[in-house]
Amino acid sequence: MARNPPTNLGRQTGLLARLWRTELDNRLRPLGLSQARWILLMHLNDNVDGITQLDLATRAGISAATLVRQIDQLEEAGLVDRNPNPDDRRANLIHLTKHGRARFQEVDAIAAELRQEVLGDLDPAQVNAMIEFTTQLISRFESLSTPHLKGDA
């Protein structure tokens, strides 16, 4: 007999995400950054050879238009550079600058501190089970035919 899924899972998940993002935003605000920009810096840090704007938008789960505004602001702050893509003249590669790498390290340390404060005294088995569970849910959502979940938006 199939059980009905809990009706408050989406609400609880959304609340958790909002609380996490809000707290991280509050901690990053003095640096002129946000959780959304930290995610971009993280992807750029992982791609030392640069990444196209389209790939970065897809990985960050945001629209290309939103990304352009974010990249403009990160470039103004001296955290990223746009360089022509030698493999595709129509595209730019985005790179972290030296200052951007240093700022990423600062921001990543702030995020790690938040993780430690929130998760540090919890049972590691429960935390790992939650990570596995949410990974499965993410995979299920990504397999749906909704275009904006697949980065096609």
Shape: globular
Question: What's the total number of strands?
Answer: 3
The number of helices is 6
What's the N-to-C terminus distance? Answer: 38 Å
Are there runs of 5+ residues with pLDDT below 50, and where? none
What structural class do the secondary elements suggest?
mainly alpha
Q: Could you give the order of the helices and strands? A: HHEHHEEHH
Please state the oligomeric state of the protein chains shown. Answer: single chain
The radius of gyration is 18 Å
Helical content, roughly?
55-70%
Largest sheet: 3 strands, antiparallel
Percentage beta strand = 5-15%
Mean pLDDT: 89
How would you describe the overall organization of this protein?
- Helices cover 62% and strands 11% of the residues.
- The mean pLDDT is 89.
- The protein has a 3-stranded antiparallel β-sheet with strand order 1-3-2.
- With 153 residues, the chain is mostly helical.
- It has 6 helices and 3 strands; from the N terminus they run ααβααββαα.
Describe this structure in a few short sentences.
With about 150 residues, the chain is mainly alpha-helical.
What tags apply to this protein structure?
3 strands; mainly alpha; 153 residues; 3-stranded antiparallel sheet
Topology summary:
Elements: H1 9-28, H2 35-46, E1 51-52, H3 53-60, H4 64-76, E2 80-85, E3 88-96, H5 98-119, H6 124-143
Antiparallel strand pairs: 1-3, 2-3
Helix pairs in contact: 1-5, 2-5, 3-4
